[in-house]
Design goal:
single chain, Helix Hairpins, mainly alpha, elongated
């Protein structure tokens, strides 16, 4: 997700997306262990998206 896309979301939508991304990250890590992941770059992209969401949630709540 781009920063512009995230800024358009409400706090509730951001939190829902954050939960979804955390579940995705867990699944990607599990797939990596089993050797089933097709694109290892998804792990780092997901981590970055989680960080973006967390940062913007804190900014909006401040």
């Amino acid at each position: 997700m781009k920063k512009k896309e995230i800024k358009k979301l409400t706090n509730k939508q951001m939190i829902e997306n954050l939960d979804k991304l955390k579940k995705d990250l867990f699944n990607f890590r599990f797939q990596k262990i089993n050797g089933q992941i097709k694109s290892p770059a998804k792990i780092s992209q997901t981590k970055k998206n989680i960080a973006r969401l967390k940062t913007l949630i804190q900014v909006k709540n401040a």
